[in-house]
Every structure is written in C-alpha cells, then in structure tokens.
Amino acid sequence: MKRIIAMLLLGAMLVLTLSACGVDMEDRGAIIPMYLTTPQTNLDPTRMIYDKNFVKVSGLIYEGLTEVGENGKITPALAKSWVKKYNEERDEYFLEINLDSTRWNDGRTFTAYHVIYAWKQVISPETASPAAALLFDIKNAKEVKAGLKTIDELGVAAVDTYTLEVQFERAIDPELFLEAISSPSLVPMRDDVVVNKETTWATNVDDIATVGKFTIKSMDPVGEYRLEYSKYYKLTSEAKKGYNEFVKPYKLISDFSKSAQEALAAFNNGEIYYVGEMTAEDYAANEKNVKTGATLSNYTYFFDCKNPVLSNAKVRSALSLALDRNQIASIIGQGTTAAKGFVSESATGTSMKKSFRKEAGNLYQASANMDAAKQQLSEAGVSSGSFTITYRQDRAYDSLVAEYAKSVWEQLGFSVSLKALPLSAYEEALYSGAFDVIALDYQGLSTNAYSFLAPFATAYSGSVVSVADDSTGVTPHITGYASEAYDALIDAAMECTTRSDRAKKLVEAEKLLVEDSPAIALVSYANYYLASSQLKGLSFSPYGYTLFTNATLKNYAEKNAAYEAAQAAKTAE
User: Fold this and answer.
1) Is pLDDT of 496 > 50?
2) How much is the pTM?
3) DSSP label at 384?
4) Which of 295, 346, 462, 531 gives 544 a disulfide partner, CB atoms 3.0 to 4.6 angstroms apart?
5) Whole-angstrom Cα distance, residue 300 to residue 198?
6) Contacts (Cβ under 8 Å, ≥6 apart) of 107
7) In angstroms, rounded to a whole number, what is the distance separating the alpha carbons of residues 219 and 126?
8) How many CA atoms, within 13 angstroms, populate the side-chain half-sphere of residue 571?
9) 3-state DSSP call for residue 366?
10) According to CATH, what is the number of the domain 66-189?
11) The CATH homologous superfamily of the domain defined by 294-526
12) Domain ranges of the chain
C-alpha cells in the first residue's frame, strides 16, 4: 500500500513539473535594453581585430570549441569532450574532439566539417589573418600557410559528423591547443554562406551565420542592434517551442541612435539597464559604481619598419621611451593603465593560472625618459626626419593621443604630421601597411602570450602569401619587421612541447620585440560596465567582453510588456 501511495505522489509531482515546464515554454526571459558598446559594421571573426569593442559583440554571437573562464580553467563550449591519442606504430600524436549537438541560427546542423572549413580558411595562403599562427601546432599547418603543401594536407579530419581529429606536429601539451581554439578568431564558419554571400556574409544581418548562444537580428549602426538567444542552440525538444534552457535573457537591445552620453542619461532615468561604453568624463564621474575586468587588448602604435626614418630599431625605441604612458592613460581614461609590456597583463604564462606579465616583468617605463630617448637617437646617428601618425577619426581620444605624441616627438627633432581617416580608409591603410605610424587596439587572439608575439615573426604573420613558383613562401608582418633572431625565438617556442618551456621562450621573444619596437603598447584597456541593481548574473570573459548568458532582470515580465508597448506605439507613429 505504501508503495502505491508513493507512486501516486511521484506521479502527481511529475504532472506538476510538466505543467510548470508548459508555463516556462511561454516564458522566454527578459528583454534587456542597454547600450552595449560602439557599433560594429563588419563581424568577420577572421580579420585583424583593431577595435577592442569588436569582441563585445562577436563574443556573444560566435562560440569556439572551448572557453577560458575567469579562473583560467579551460572548459567545453561547442566541444563536448576530448581525448589525446597516440599511434605508436607511426609515432603520430592526435587529439580527438567530440562536438556537442547544436544548430546554426538558421536551424542547420552544426558539424565537424564547419570547424575544418573555418580553420582551413584561416590557414589558407590567400587569407590575411594573424590567427593563422594559433593553428601551427597542427601537422603541416605552417607549410600549408607558406603554400608549400596543399590545404588538404592540413592535419585535421572529420571522423564523423560530431567527431574532429587533429594531428599534431609533435607531442605537445594538448592544453596549449585547447587554449588556442578558445580564440574568437577560430570559431566555426559555414562554407555555403561565405562562398555564396562573399561580400555580405559578415556585414548584412540577414546573411550572418552563427552557432553561439545569441544570434543577431538587427544591426543598424545608427539605430538598433538586437540580439536574441538562438532557439537552435544545443537544440532540445523544449527549444523547438521557442525556449532556451541554456540562456536566460531573451533579447539584448542596444539603441545606437543615442550617443554614449544620452545612453548614460537613459540609464540614470531607469530606461536602460546596462552601459558598456562611456566617455572618459562619464567614466570618471561613475567610477565608484563601475564594474571592471581584464582584457587582452592594448592601445598600440605600429611603425613602418621600411620607412627610412623609422627603419632603425634604436629610433623606434627612442620614440617609445619618450612617451609618458601614464599621461596617455589619463588622456584615454576609462580604466586604462600604462602598459608594462607588449603582452597584456591578463595573458597566461607557465600555467593557465599564472600571469605572463608577472613572470616576464615590466619592460616599459610608465613615465617618459627623454634622456634615454636622446641617447638612443645619438647611437642611431639620427637627429631629424618626418613621418605621419594615422588614426581613426571616429574616436576622440585617438586624436588627443596623436597630438600628445606629436608634441613629444617633435621635441626630439622630428617633424610629425597627423592624419585622421574615416573607418573604411583607416582599415585600408592598416591592412595594406600604408602608414608610417598607425594607432590601433591590438587584441590578443588567444589568452596565451604566444598570440601577441608570434605574428611579428616572418613565417607566423598570417599575411597573404604568394603561391607563385618564385615566392619565398612567407610575407612579413604588416609593419615590415624582419628579424632572424626574433624568428628563431618564435620557432624555438613552437618546438617546445610543454607550456612552461614555451612560456620561457616567449619571455625572451617579448624582450627582443620591445627592444626592436616594430610596435609599442601604450596602455592596457579595461573591460567595464555600469549595471542597474535590477540586473544580475553578469560576468567577464578574459577576452574582454561581458557574458550575459545568466543575466536576470528583476520583474522582467512587467518590463518586457512596457518595452513592447512602447515599441508598438513608436511603430504606429
């Protein structure tokens, strides 16, 4: 009799649970009005990232095979599990990666082929992507990039729909590769989309294919960016009804018809619940309430090492020494700090939990050293020359920093002009190397210091490589930097099979890079946001964006209804 009663009680509980689930199917979650960040117009993840705000959008809509948490732990994302394998007969080393079952934002099944296609795109000689170096642990990857082997000889294969096999050049610590493939530049891509919509697949919201937690529904740089959870993400029977058990908020809506100042006013009025970008003045005024996290992005100057005035490493080093990085940080504000080295402070070192920056030490002085700068110029036999600083015209602080650098460098005897370019012209100048000095946000494409340093080695630059018979098979970094000593250090780092040994070689490489100064980090950015007390569950990605996966908004049902009513009234006008 007791057993019967227990079964009846269990049945009643199941009915209540299923009934509750039925209610939950109608509850899609919160609509969160916000000011996410400055708008992005091209969401191609394989491009060089020159804007720290790119990952604040791309990190929400794309997903890699792995993730790196704030605690430095590598966890599965689109990958479900992995196992290291060894073929003793052939002395071959493999990593078998089992992929999770999920779908693209249009409902198409995600497969191992989409990962292979994306990685082959990045590693192709015809593609310009600094992320190529992240794949060089794969067998034949370096030779494929150099055009010495065909793309089909890359050591990746689909064992079946959901199983990816990666063959390595040597017996490396698989953690190094698992860290690399957390990169926002190595996310899966769809061949049918990229090939058939070649000019629009990353710029037209109707053509963008994503396989992340959120999908982008509108993308108007002077209007609305609207992200919704993907109803196909890790598709379950519940998801078919419009429910997503993995993502709590329903919509993230950023209104770019408002300026950053207007957005802050709307936040203070309770109209929006999150602000992810502010002016330096507004940041300072709200600093006590701002939440901050690390990024992998530094505000950086690239030099044209082929320019006769800038070709001498001592000249470039002198220009670096003459700048006061504390003053530049005060100009930019927003939580930035003087760069201590070329590699970001949040990059990993001899372990995932250790900071490369702390292990490598401080390589830049925060304050200017004009005497040392003049000494370097004296040793170089240079006392004058002219060059131009190029920067984007859409950010006020780029101009202010350039004006400051001009004033300092002219004290050293140089004639410095300034060139502010609209975004399209700026991109062209950057990607083609048509600059003397150019300002950019240099983004680490992996949490490992290797991603900062490798692209400056000739064979690791990721630049387009000619496959003509008379080609050398390599194209230097866009700065034109070419150093046999530096190339040898990066080669030596790649030969290391353990994280600890590789990190030690990278410490040597960074010291040489700072000495030669083809590029100089000026300040390290902070990821920050201002959130309403009614918005909870936010966290930071080490790549420099905010995670909204578990975001909750108090009384969101009422707020959703009010928001939708306001939108309906606006549409009816």
Assistant:
1) yes
2) 0.93
3) -
4) 295
5) 31
6) 232
7) 29
8) 6
9) coil
10) 3.90.76.10
11) Dipeptide-binding Protein; Domain 3 (3.10.105.10)
12) 30-61+211-289+543-573, 66-189, 294-526
